[in-house]
Amino acid sequence: MLNRFKVWRERRILENEPIDPALWDAGLRALPMLARLSDEETARLRRLATLFLHQKRFLGVRGLQLDPAMALDIALQACLPILNLGLEWYEDWVTIIVYPDDFLTEHEYIDEAGVVHREQGPRSGEAWERGPVLLSWAEVAHGEALVVHEFAHTLDMRNGQANGMPPLHRDMSVDTWSRVMNEAFENLNQYLDHGAEPPLDPYAATDPAEFFAVASEYFFADPGTLARTYPAVYAQFCGFYRQDPLGRFPAPD
């Protein structure tokens, strides 16, 4: 009965809150990472984005006025990672706060000696375990896959903390995932330790959680680089995200 009600409710949302066709076409054109999607995948992305826009609460702060095109831009990037997972992977939180530019956040942590430290610094994005997701519109509009990065963190935190280990599917091995991610993480840090140009954004070397988020950016926005550099990571991501970006038909010129 509950499943039938859910299906009925979603159908009503899709019928009563459709995305404007012109806005949809412009949104697709603005994001090259969507160019490889098939017609069937694009249709499913549209369904997910419509439901996402209905379920999530968007808040522009510090004078930022969010218009439908901006909200759709965020929704498209947020829904791409869950294209074959489902919107329930984002069910633990509701609010998305969008700043016009970078914002200051304060974090507290305890070191190995038991000393409490507080640090404050500018951020372009941040995801909290139960929400909200914080984004800088300046970075989102710049096209750096910031949204994919932060929403990858929300997937990671479905296990309770951001540690680079999202809830894996039953057909995936925790041991294999851990080994592959740790080897790639250590390899990336070796590049930096030797002063060499790293194959991925050096921010991925911060900790395993950031490695997962940055590598997720590459998986969707630049899959060729991730597959060439860390093919085992790419293969694990194909299994987790249930997608193979390189296996799709060639993107148009």
Automatic annotation (TrEMBL):
Pfam families named among the record's database cross-references: Peptidase_M90
An example GO CC term for this entry is:
cytosol
Q: What InterPro entries has UniProt attached to this entry?
A: MetalloPept_cat_dom_sf (IPR024079), MtfA_fam (IPR010384), MtfA_N (IPR042252)
One GO molecular-function entry: aminopeptidase activity
Q: Which top-rank group of organisms is this from?
A: Bacteria
Q: What is this protein called?
A: Zinc-dependent peptidase
Please report the organism this UniProt entry assigns to the protein: Thioalkalivibrio sulfidiphilus (strain HL-EbGR7)
